[in-house]
Design goal:
Helix content is 28%, strand content 21%. It is of the alpha+beta class.
C-alpha cells in the first residue's frame, strides 16, 4: 500500500544582516572577513565559515582549492575540523557561512552535501543543535535552528550501531 509522506523544514529569513542580534552579526562579519583568505583560483567562489563556541571563542575557516581536485576543502569543513581538532570538548553553538561570487550575489548559497553531513555529524556528536546562519553577498540571511534542517535524512551511523 502506497502512503505519501512529507518532510518539511523551517527557517527564518532576514532581508539584511542588521536585522540580527549583535552576536550573530559579529559571527557573520567574521565569516565575511575570513572569506577573503579563501584560496579559490579555479572557482573564484570565496566562502568563509565561523563557528561560535559556547565559551564565546570563534573558530574560522575558508575554502581551500587544489589543482588535484577533489583535494581541496570547503570552508564549512575547514572550520568544523579546526574546531574539533583544537577545541574538542567545547560545545559548538552556531556556524555562520558566507559565500561571495559575482554570479551568485542575489542567491542564497547553502553547504554542499558533504558539508551538510559533517555539520550533522558534529551536532550528533555533541547531542545538541548547532544553529546555522547563511548569508549571501547581498547581506540576506537565512537562519536554521539545526544542521538537520539542511539534511533531514542525514546518515547517522551512531543510530545504526544502537540497533
Amino acid at each position: 500500500m502506497k502512503e505519501n509522506q512529507n518532510i518539511s523544514i523551517q527557517y527564518s529569513s532576514y532581508s539584511h544582516i542588521s536585522d540580527l542580534d549583535d552576536e550573530d552579526i559579529n559571527l557573520l562579519k567574521n565569516a565575511v572577513e575570513i572569506s577573503n583568505d579563501a584560496y579559490a583560483p579555479y572557482s573564484e567562489f570565496h566562502v568563509g565559515a565561523s563557528v561560535l563556541l559556547k565559551s564565546g571563542e570563534i573558530v574560522s575557516g575558508s575554502n581551500q582549492e587544489n589543482a588535484a581536485y577533489p583535494s581541496g576543502l570547503c570552508a564549512e569543513r575547514v572550520a568544523m575540523f579546526a574546531t574539533s581538532a583544537n577545541h574538542r570538548d567545547k560545545e559548538m553553538q552556531t556556524i555562520a557561512i558566507y559565500a561571495a561570487s559575482e554570479t551568485t550575489a542575489k542567491k542564497q548559497i547553502s553547504p554542499c552535501g558533504s558539508c551538510r553531513q559533517v555539520l550533522v555529524e558534529y551536532e550528533v556528536k555533541q547531542n545538541k543543535n548547532i544553529k546555522v546562519l547563511l548569508m549571501n553577498s547581498s547581506k540576506e540571511v537565512w537562519e536554521f535552528n539545526s544542521c538537520r534542517d539542511l539534511l533531514p535524512l542525514a546518515f547517522d551511523f551512531t543510530a545504526l550501531k544502537k540497533q
